[in-house]
């Protein structure tokens, strides 16, 4: 099977290194050719795909009026990998946060958002240290070590989460509760402490999952996001820069979706299934990889790209380098959905399988996100 290559665009992982280069932090390079600034905020709007913004530009007039280009987010196109790209400046093959769920050798499949054994297993906080799952220095800690103030403005509930520790350690965390204090906190940080501020907004992604990207509820939330961007643009202190990005786009799963839990022909030789609806990791028993690969290719047909681990790595899905630490986290077989296809697990993942909007795969609708810039 010929596998698609990812879009020829700069990677989301280049955003923060480029910002830190502008701010004078050694060893980073401004590969995005950002303008000079004394401080910057990177606002990540979860789920804001480039194609979705283009299709609904009228609902986001301020954001759409900014200087914009597109980035690719890498594989899988999901929040855990995207936040890790921001937090390390690396693609998933190096930071190792290879999906919503992925196997940690000796532990089992980890749900990286909930830090629990997946599916439905015990909390792993006391057993699995976030610093062991993602041991590389973060962009925040590197900035702080260089004397640049590094701050995260995000939901208060995430302040002490294992994922925060894994990909955002080294920052000062400002917990917020709604769009109002998100905007106020960002502007306060930029006024008081010139440096690097990262801000995160999650609700557009939630509306897309629940009602579908482009639905009335999603469009109303996009309008609220645009008001947030407007407030930040108008309030930017002199010399500061705002960059608006996203971690992935989203598609509506259609009637071609299948329930993997109801397909016994796909379980032979399989130890574990990870990933998510549009991007699956399949972990096999020793010696069964070839049989599992053939069975999944035959069953999913033209609905998905199904590859062996080494094929997916060679196609560049996980970035230019995949470390030995990360390689076992990638499925022995990797399946990426095409079009509106989904690989549900209604018994094992009832909540996730019920969602209308999904993401994770290599399609441009999921891979491309905006990079919108405003300078004062």
UniProtKB/TrEMBL annotation:
<dbReference type="InterPro" id="IPR002591">
    <property type="entry name" value="Phosphodiest/P_Trfase"/>
</dbReference>
<dbReference type="GO" id="GO:0016787">
    <property type="term" value="F:hydrolase activity"/>
</dbReference>
<dbReference type="InterPro" id="IPR017850">
    <property type="entry name" value="Alkaline_phosphatase_core_sf"/>
</dbReference>
<protein>
    <submittedName>
        <fullName>Alkaline phosphatase family protein</fullName>
    </submittedName>
</protein>
<dbReference type="Pfam" id="PF01663">
    <property type="entry name" value="Phosphodiest"/>
</dbReference>
């Amino acid at each position: 099977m010929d596998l698609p290559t990812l879009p020829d665009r700069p990677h989301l992982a280049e955003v923060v290194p480029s910002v830190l280069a502008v701010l004078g932090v050694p060893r980073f390079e401004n590969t995005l050719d950002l303008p000079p600034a004394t401080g910057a905020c990177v606002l990540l709007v979860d789920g804001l795909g480039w194609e979705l913004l283009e299709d609904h530009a009228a609902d986001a007039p301020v954001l759409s009026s900014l200087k914009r280009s597109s980035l690719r987010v890498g594989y899988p196109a999901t929040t855990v990998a995207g936040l890790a790209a921001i937090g390390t400046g690396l693609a998933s093959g190096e930071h190792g946060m290879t999906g919503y769920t992925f196997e940690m050798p000796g532990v089992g499949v980890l749900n990286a958002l909930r830090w629990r054994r997946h599916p439905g297993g015990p909390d792993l906080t006391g057993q699995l240290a976030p610093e062991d799952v993602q041991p590389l220095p973060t962009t925040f800690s590197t900035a702080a070590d260089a004397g640049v103030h590094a701050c995260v403005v995000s939901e208060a509930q995430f302040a002490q989460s294992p994922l925060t520790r894994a990909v955002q350690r080294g920052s000062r965390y400002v917990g917020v509760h709604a769009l109002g204090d998100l905007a106020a906190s960002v502007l306060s940080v930029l006024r008081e402490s010139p440096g690097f501020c990262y801000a995160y907004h999650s609700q557009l992604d939630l509306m897309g999952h629940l009602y579908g990207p482009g639905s009335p509820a999603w469009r109303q939330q996009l309008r609220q996001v645009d008001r947030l961007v407007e407030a930040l643009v108008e309030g930017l202190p002199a010399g500061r820069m705002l960059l608006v990005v996203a971690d992935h786009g989203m598609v509506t799963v259609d009637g071609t979706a299948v329930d993997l839990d109801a397909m016994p022909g796909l379980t032979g030789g399989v130890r574990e299934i990870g990933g998510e609806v549009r991007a699956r990791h399949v972990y096999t028993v020793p010696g069964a990889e070839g049989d599992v690969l053939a069975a999944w290719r035959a069953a999913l047909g033209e609905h998905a790209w199904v590859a062996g681990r080494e094929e997916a790595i060679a196609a560049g899905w996980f970035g230019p380098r995949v470390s030995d630490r990360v390689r076992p986290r990638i499925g022995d077989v990797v399946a990426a959905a095409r079009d509106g296809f989904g690989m549900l697990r209604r018994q094992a993942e009832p909540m996730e399988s019920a969602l209308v909007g999904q993401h994770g795969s290599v399609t441009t609708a999921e891979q491309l996100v905006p990079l919108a810039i405003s300078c004062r």
